[in-house]
Amino acid sequence: MTGMFGVSIQGLSGQLLVGLLNGSFYAxxxxxxxxxxxxxxxxxxxxGAQYMMGAFLAWIGMTYLGxxxxxxxxxxxxxxxxxxxxxxxxxxxxxxKLDHLYGLLLTFGLALIIEGLFRYRFGISGESYxxxxxLAGGRNLGFMFLPKYRVWVVVASLAVCFGTWYVIERTKLxxxxxxxxxxxxxxxxxxxxxxxxxxxTYGYGVALAAFAGxxxxxxxxxxxxxxxxxxxTVFAVVVVGGMGSxxxxxxxxxxxxxxxxxxxxxxxxxxxxxxxxSVPVAGSIVYPIKLLFSxxxxxxxxxxxxAIVLLVRPAGLFGRxx
Amino acid sequence: xxxxxxxxxxSISAFVPRFEYLRVTGLHAFYGESHILHGIDFTxxxxxxxxxxxxxxxxxxxxxxxxxxxVGKRTGSIMVNGREGIxxxxxxxxxxxxxxxxxxxxxYASLSLEENLLLPPIVSSGGMSLEExxxxxxxxxxxxxxxxxxxxxxxxxxxxxxxILRTGATLLLxxxxxxGLAPVIVQTLGRVIRGLKEKGLTIVMVEQNFRFAAxxxxxxxxxxxxxxxxxxxxxxxxxxxxxxxxxxxx
Lengths: 322, 250
What we know:
The complex is a heterodimer of chains A (322) and B (250). Chain A has a domain at 11-224. Chain A has 13 helices and 2 strands; from the N terminus they run H-H-H-H-E-E-H-H-H-H-H-H-H-H-H. Chain A has helices at 9-40, 47-65, 69-90, 100-122, 148-170, 172-182, 184-189, 194-216, 226-241, 246-265, 267-276, 280-292, 301-312; strands at 138-140, 145-147. With 250 residues, chain B is α/β, with parallel strands linked by helices. Helix content of chain B is 33%, strand content 27%. Chain B has 10 helices and 10 strands. The model of chain B is unreliable at 1-14 (pLDDT under 50). Chains A and B meet through helix 6 and helix 7 of A and helix 3 of B.
């Protein structure tokens, strides 16, 4: 089989897997941002740093204390989440009555400080975290090699994402969270401890970031800037999905990861070539679009889509106009 | 009024009639820089229905909000069933046994009708069960899975009332519950309120619709510029009606 539009089936499925993997990280990180924004009205710019802390705690635990991967997957989010709750109680709490911008600036500053401290202590070159034995290796499917660990990451992130969605949309606890997002003052007048709920919610959002960090540790290099590299793309995902929408952030994260993978495979550029290159004028008009969707430009795909979505639907695909 | 020091109040309490359920003393409330309530004093006895009357901006809604701690800052004393509420955070005040129905109704758009109904936590025993509530408001039972955003104004008001009856609250603060509703729904609400009075609930009502409030209420407090300026007993209503109209500007 020769594949589709000049892309081998091996190439395409490989890129789709990478896309799904990236999409899982986008989904879980933008989900955390969405939950935090919904209730706290704060754009958590420290999310990338908290993701990095999750990965680093796993590495530190393994290197100095012999904590294995599975324990790290549990403990690291708990610790980083608790750290988040302290931040909320000590700092963020004071900003709720102010504009979004203040929260964004504060968390941005925090991100820089946290990143700087890790850079100072661990340097920039990064550390490697081995794949745990149980998930090492993979399976040859004939047309591609499927690494076990990557499958695990996709399954684990999706399970956490949809589990979180279920709790928020379908349970009593979730109804408090949704109500708190809409009208926290009245919820508190009914007798719900809203300040505590806000602290726990921030802690959970931060823990999600740290969980993603631990998942990422064996795949990417564990280094102090791993978060800031990723978080810019995640913010673009959030803008596309619509700030504050739970299902929107999950679907958009996965979708954009996959689209990125497809672009990387070269399929879109080839498709555009096949359709328009023979047409004299159209070919040159389409040329810049082809460049934007060429495999080399796959890193900007998300941002191109973000720009288009902002023009057409400023509130995002799943967002409601405020 | 008996706004003495702490020990004095507790030693006096034996002489205070047992049925006094809400006592607001010297209540001041502020939103940021603006001073809205200037020392409110009033009492509501157990099982009594009292209205706060007055023009828009007189401070009636703020009085309810100040009782719940929903204003910027408040001072004074708010005794609910013998317990002081002024120093408590908002979420603990509800647990003194207060149910609140806000002017804008406060139905959560992203929650279904039943989720809205089940949202407020139980604050004391003796609340109505879900079945009893659906019996009282049959039209809510049919629509229980509908999103809050898709309910009609009347349904929203029924829901806002029903929601606090489930919690076992014994003191209800109701803000403009008849506002913008069709006469037939106002009649239904009148029946509901009468039923609640018979059950012995204590009710403070802010109401623009005097014709709705007059036959239900035991007493009326008239507010002006953040103060209580007049108290009218039900029995004196006929003789004082002209004065009352003067206050309300009708």
